[in-house]
Amino acid sequence: MRRLKPLTKDGITPTWWYAPAPVVMSFLEGSNLKGKTVIPFMTNAGWPGHVIKDMTQAAEKSGAVVEHAHEFRSPLALHASKR
């Protein structure tokens, strides 16, 4: 059996009512992330809310370096916004 090595860069969440998924926030707030780099990215089908901001603040408070946050929007949301 292969053993997985811990990631040095991590962080993803879907948007849950304009906020990060609760389990993601619990992980970020309850983990020692010193020496880790977190790259927050999130998915949504419309308005992104404050997901990236919340994840960034929680990760930094837990000791992580945060870089290159990304938002991935549903193609359906992008199409609807052009109407």
How would you characterize the overall build of this protein?
The structure is a single chain. This protein is 33% helix and 29% strand. The protein is an alpha/beta fold. Strands 1, 2, 3, 4 and 5 form a five-stranded mixed β-sheet that branches. Helix 1 packs parallel to helix 2. The longest helix is centred in the C-terminal third of the chain and has 11 residues.
Encode the helix/strand succession as letters. Answer: EEHEHEEH
Structural class: alpha/beta
Radius of gyration from the alpha-carbon trace, in angstroms: 14 Å
User: What are the segments in which pLDDT stays under 50 over at least 5 consecutive residues?
Assistant: none
Q: Biggest sheet: strands, sense, closure? A: 5 strands, mixed
Q: How many β strands by DSSP? A: 5
Level of helix content?
Answer: 25-40%
**Mean residue pLDDT:** 77
End-to-end separation: 52 Å
Beta-strand percentage range: 25-35%
Q: Given the structure, what is the number of helices?
A: 3
Shape type = globular
Which helices and strands, and how do they pair?
Layout lengths: L8 E8 L2 E2 L1 H9 L6 E8 L6 H11 L3 E2 L3 E4 L1 H7 L2
Helix pairs in contact: 1-2
